[in-house]
Amino acid sequence: DVKVTQSSRYLVKRTGEKVFLECVQDMDHENMFWYRQDPGLGLRLIYFSYDVKMKEKGDIPEGYSVSREKKERFSLILESASTNQTSMYLCASSLLQGRDNTEAFFGQGTRLTVV
Amino acid sequence: QQQVKQSPQSLIVQKGGISIINCAYENTAFDYFPWYQQFPGKGPALLIAIRPDVSEKKEGRFTISFNKSAKQFSLHIMDSQPGDSATYFCAATKRKGKLIFGQGTTLQVKP
């Protein structure tokens, strides 16, 4: 059974804290993604990684950074958390495009509240 | 800027009716168009997908219609059921599989 695991379901952090969201996949996928989900705005791509140590900015990278030191792990870092980063964060993984199956598999999400 | 635009934001349909959700895109580099379904408390899951060399794809009660010249695609849910109540996202991918989503549609199917 394919699996994308996010380290926390719920997090509460203080303004200004450095926050780490961890994601691990067990499918040997090349691609990994971080999205944030907000009502009415859908899923907005924060960062995308297509290989170890490779990353591309998504639509809303400001205030975030990422790390991919191993193929199975993709971390999202909020350098200095702010209240406008309160959101649901979703991690996903998929095979590299060009193969037949490009389905993305999602984790359960991390509900982050910044106070 | 929203690269994939989805409408309506919410939809209420009677049981047995047809649900229609529309999406439009600008970037002709997109070459794969999936739809994802999300239930409360869960991550999205792939429902059905289409490539632009095909105008229609059907899987059970779910059909994607694709209009390449208009850069639009839509999801039709036939014989909608209360169990179909969920949030639906259209999406598009381009090089390396970078996946861009629309804003989402919350569907409620009334018994």
Structural account:
The complex is a heterodimer of chains A (115) and B (111). With 115 residues, chain A is mainly β. Helices cover 0% and strands 56% of the residues of chain A. Chain A is globular, with a radius of gyration of 13 Å. The relative contact order of chain A is 0.33. Chain B is mostly beta strands. Chain B contains no helices and eleven strands. Chain B has strands at 4-7, 10-14, 19-25, 33-38, 45-50, 56-59, 62-67, 72-77, 86-94, 98-101, 105-110. In chain B, the strands form two sheets. In chain B, strands 2, 4, 5, 9, 10 and 11 form a six-stranded mixed β-sheet that branches. Chains A and B meet through strand 4, strand 5 and strand 9 of A and strand 5, strand 9 and strand 10 of B.
Q: Bin the strand percentage of chain A.
A: over 45%
Q: What is the straight-line distance between the termini of chain A?
A: 37 Å
- End-to-end separation of chain B in angstroms reads 37 Å
Please state roughly what percent of the residues of chain B sit in beta strands, choosing from under 5%, 5-15%, 15-25%, 25-35%, 35-45% or over 45%: over 45%
Q: Characterize the main sheet of chain B.
A: 6 strands, mixed
Anisotropy-based shape of chain A:
globular
Shape of chain B: globular
Largest interface: A-B, 29 and 27 residues
Specify the helix fraction band of chain B.
under 10%
